[in-house]
Design a protein that fits this description.
Length: 263
């Protein structure tokens, strides 16, 4: 009888453990859909299509691909759109897998601000700072023309391309060809400058030896006169120009990295 009671207690304890584990797993899952259009930029059908597309990419590569639109990012963080983005990401426990890998694109319509937040080792391997800079060019041109669906669609497709390349060990990285070409060019210029200095010194020594030959036969300078017949000066003021249209910059914080700017 005692043995049966112990078995029943053990079964009850194991059942409770599994229930608690299931609840914990549910609580650590993302609390938002892959596409959350709070600003109402998309139709119901567009939202559904993008949701299916983002879910497919996220599940395939284990990196969540998210889209969030809001009226004003200040409702989530007053210090900047990028901070608002990673605040939403963490408060709503976004991301795939135990490390919550994912990338989120946030649009704040009030001031036409945007930010992109990349979190987790998988995401940052596939989308380093160079990759993120390249990625933004895919969707910002659409947003500049208020083509929201087209921009979000391009964003998801491009994320899929980057994640696919990273999955086979070939992540998108900056080419070393042009930096190497610049280094070679600077090295050649430095070598040319050194040769020019040496040549100038050799030429000066040659002229001095020739002059000494004239002095040895009795040449003497009795008067030295310097006359300047013309004096010309010129100056030019360099004007600075700048443009902030469509500007963006790298950000870090919230345990990840990203980009932000205006569209």
């Amino acid at each position: 009888m005692k043995k049966r009671i112990r078995c029943l207690l053990l079964v009850l304890i194991l059942t409770l453990v599994f229930c608690v584990g299931a609840v914990a797993a549910e609580q650590t899952g993302a609390q938002l859909s892959y596409v959350t259009d709070s600003a109402g930029l998309l139709s119901e059908n567009e939202t559904m299509l993008l949701e299916k597309m983002a879910e497919s990419v996220s599940k395939k590569y284990g990196v969540g691909v998210y889209i969030v639109t809001v009226e004003d990012y200040r409702d989530f963080h007053s210090e900047g759109v990028y901070k608002a983005t990673y605040t939403i990401y963490h408060e709503y426990t976004m991301g795939e897998g135990p490390n919550r890998d994912g990338i989120m694109l946030l649009l704040s319509i009030d001031d036409r601000d945007w930010a992109m937040f990349c979190y987790g080792s998988r995401c940052e391997y596939a989308l380093n700072s160079y990759g993120q800079q390249k990625l933004e060019k895919v969707f910002l041109d659409n947003f500049g023309e208020n083509d929201w669906y087209g921009g979000f669609e391009d964003y998801i497709k491009e994320c899929s391309v980057y994640l696919e390349k990273a999955s086979v060990g070939k992540p998108v990285r900056a080419s070393l060809f042009y930096p190497l070409l610049i280094v070679i060019g600077l090295s050649l210029l430095a070598a040319a400058a050194v040769v020019a200095v040496i040549w100038q010194k050799m030429d000066a020594v040659s002229k001095k030896a020739t002059a000494n030959a004239y002095v040895s036969v009795g040449l003497r300078l009795t008067e030295q006169t310097d006359r300047f017949t013309h004096k010309t000066t010129s100056s030019r003021k360099i004007e600075r120009s700048s443009s902030s249209s469509g500007s963006s910059h790298s950000e870090s914080g919230g345990g990840g990295s990203g980009r932000s700017g205006k569209f």
